[in-house]
Amino acid sequence: MKSKTGIIAVNFSAILFTLLFYKQATGVNLLIFEILYFCWLAVSRQVDFRNRNMLVFGSLLLLTALFTVITHSVFSYVIHYLALLVFVGILIYPEAKSLISITGISFLNIGGAQKKFLEHLSEYGIKGSRIASLFKRGMIFLFPVIIILAFIIIYRNSNPWFDGVVTNILKHIGNWINLIFKDFDFMIIVTFLIGLLISNILLLRWNNRKIIEKDSSAADTLERRKSGKQHHFKPNGLKNEYRAGVFLLSALNILILVMNVMDIYWVWFHFTWNGQYLKQFVHEGTYLLILSILISIFLILYYFRKNINFYSKNSLLKILSYLWLAQNTILALSVGIRNFWYIYYYALAYRRIGVIIFLVLTLFGLYSVFMKVLRRKSSFYLFRVNALAIYLVLVISSAINWDTLIARYNFSHADRSFLHLDYVASLSDEALPYLDHPLAELKRIDTVQKKNFPNEKVIYMKPDTYFSIIENRKVFFKKKWESKGIMSWNLPEYLAYKNMFGKPENSLGMLFLP
């Protein structure tokens, strides 16, 4: 993009950003901004619809943008910004093989794009003057100003009379600034500058040749490499490494077999709950799983890193590796069953949901390690497919409003599972309709809870306190929603307001839905 075109494009984008986000919460405005961004990319032919990476990751970006309006959770926004980061990386390097390379390029672009903007600015003159040149000259005085301010702070803290003089001067300067700019809203400048920084990242884009060269030269399949060194003795190094690997994996398979037999007997088929707290029961298994999986991946990467993949007598090592991976899979299922019992008796929470997501990724990770050994794949392949799997699982997870799901599940199972009122009271506003229960119902649930969980010694929130907190939150939410502009609209809060107070009377209630 030419310098003049780039400067015009980013300024127009920053103005559009200001119009959409000035004094607005994030909502439908984000979706509108990114749809217009896609339209610009299509019109300016910056999107190659024949490129699979652009189509796939562009579609996922728009999908996550839609999820931010549909679920409006912190998690959905985090995943969406990750998707945006990935898509910008694809625009910079469409032929990328690895999601890790794409993310690295895009991350470096955050700072590189700002530098590129200043370079374009220096090439774009207005009436013979050069804006960036004046800016650079002004930056010369930045360091002296910082030093002067530092000494002023030191002298103010060491001398009360000097502090009084400075305070008086600052007060007069503040009054003078307020008088001049009393009708000026600095927030609009802040919004524009944020929009400018984001627009630079999205439109100018700066690449990193080192990452591109490294990614382009990487391969999924291993190739046998012969050493150029001459050996004056029989090279037994490969055989010794093979024997060590067989010994180690044999011992580890025996150890994990004992663990799995005990888990299958006690956790799978003979688990009984006697009122004990299950947090340690689940988390210990999860930590063991993490450690076991990391060890298994490390061992496979180590022993199948080079020519042992092509060793003609490596069949026993492969069999032991497959058995090791299979037993890790059983261990993962055991942790899944532990987590099931934890949810059954203690309801849903973020960490318990996180364990489920982690187990899904773990099972895929074990499968990818199996394929590496079976098909002689490289470490690059292993990291590439697992990074993609993590990304896809996170995108799918962002489509679910977890707060609403937790609130609905925990209250509907309160006669069986432990209801932690302190926890559910902290869930987001979208879950308010499912957190709002009559005081009589809350007291009934509390009676059932005390009967089912007599061993709970921690003092939790009382029903009266919970009821008061939810009532106050409802009042605050009603005022907040009714004060929002149309650009801040989102589906979950709209439905929450409608369920609790009826159809909104302001413009927000007339947007998109009846």
Q: What would you note in describing this structure?
A:
With 514 residues, the chain is an all-alpha fold. The chain has 21 helices and 2 strands. Strands 1-2 form a two-stranded antiparallel sheet. Helix 1 (3-21) packs across helix 9 (186-204), helix 3 (52-70) runs antiparallel to helix 4 and helix 11 runs parallel beside helix 13. The chain starts with a helix and ends in a 13-residue tail after the last helix. 28% of the residues are buried. The model is unreliable at 230-234 (pLDDT under 50).
Q: How many DSSP H or I helices?
A: 21
Kindly report the average pLDDT value: 85
N- to C-terminal separation? 44 Å
The rounded Rg comes to 30 Å
- Number of E strands: 2
Query: Strand percentage, roughly?
Result: under 5%
Parts with pLDDT < 50 across at least 5 consecutive residues: 230-234
What's the topology here?
Layout: H1 3-21, H2 28-43, H3 52-70, H4 74-92, H5 99-123, E1 125-126, E2 129-130, H6 131-139, H7 142-158, H8 160-180, H9 186-204, H10 209-217, H11 237-269, H12 279-303, H13 315-346, H14 350-375, H15 379-397, H16 402-412, H17 421-424, H18 432-435, H19 439-452, H20 463-483, H21 491-501
Antiparallel strand pairs: 1-2
